[in-house]
Amino acid sequence: MAQQESSPKDMAVGCGCLAVLALVLVSCSAVVFGGGDDEKEPSTSFTSPTVSVSDSATPTMAAIDESARTMCAQSALAAAHHKVGNYDEESDAQSEAAMDALGSSVPEVQRLAFGPADTRSARIQAWCRANVRVKTPKVKKAAPTPDPYPTDDPSDSDGGGVSDVRPGAFCSPGGATGTWRGRVYTCKGPGQNRWRR
């Protein structure tokens, strides 16, 4: 005997019938098990609703631990550094805030430590504004760090020479002088100018 495939319409009708049957059974069971002929007088007393406190909403001040306070202080420091343009220091403070969030015993604070850095710092700042009062520290613009590999300016040395040259490399202007490992080289031809002795 070959089986016929059910069409989507037939399947929908079957599911609808099952749903109606389930509703009928549930309502019958409520009538059968829900009570019998015992009718009770409706109660005229009023019970006041109870108030429950959820830990997932805003934690109480007792629930905010020292790690959460330190996280908020680091977050405020990061915001202050951003305001004056100290972006390296801002990044360091944001990383410290995330580490403090991980060290907290409050689960809500621990969850703040995860996610991309830009949204993480925004979420930490928002949580701190809502839960912890932190005074924003005043910071100054950081002094620029010296370049570990300064470029030599030819106009700085005496006579317009260059202090460090590579022998055989092309150069200009002709007649300029420079040194390589303590030896003096001159920019000269024949042909194209190169650093020569």
TrEMBL record:
It comes from the Bacteria. Residues 137-178 are annotated as: Disordered. This is Uncharacterized protein. It comes from Actinomadura macrotermitis.
